[in-house]
């Protein structure tokens, strides 16, 4: 099946972001994509100063648009971090998934908050405004089972391993790595998650805006279970297409059967809730 990653240029005008995102979703569908993913922060700039201003409830304006375009195009639509979600007085970094009938299939709240300090380069603290999610998020399609993470979640190998154990064959990470962490770790982490668990990994970023307060790395990428990069964008707004070949996944798992060779008598990773 064909996967499309929409590397969107994000402005400060929410309505413009929504309109352009939906237009690119329609374009991807017209080119045969069955599963389409938007980047983290697709409807608002990324930054703690923006989260409260752009926050919505779910359902709300942004998710309603996503539901409508998913139904119109009869696709599975991963809404990036569609919005800073407001719920019970708290804000969450939330990704929604809609099916071909427009129904909400999954809602992933970012589990690991991006609190980092690289002296002289970047300091960021999502926990100043956001609360963490507390659950894994998976959804089924006629093609395969898909696991979700958001950006910083990709650094935690245990999360990807749980998804693999639960039968996911594709992991999707809407993300917005920056100009420090992007060149160092963006592709490396995707390849690591893919080869460790013998599954496909796709990470979709906003396009790079050098004038923004937080400059995203871009380079939306898809990696196959062999650890090979099979599709990759540059820094500009674009749509990345790739065909996910589950026969290749099965072949790789048969050739190097690490999943059945794990020493569960010596170690293990478990999902607690």
From TrEMBL:
UniProt keyword list: Hydrolase
Annotated SUPFAM superfamilies: Carbon-nitrogen hydrolase
KW Transmembrane helix (keyword) present: no
GO biological-process terms attached to the record: asparagine metabolic process; glutamine metabolic process; oxaloacetate metabolic process
GO cellular component: mitochondrion
Record has Membrane as a keyword: no
Class of the enzyme per the UniProt entry, highest EC level: hydrolase
Similarity remark: Belongs to the carbon-nitrogen hydrolase superfamily. NIT1/NIT2 family.
The name this protein goes by in its record: omega-amidase
Organism field: Brachypodius melanocephalos
Gene of this entry: Nit2
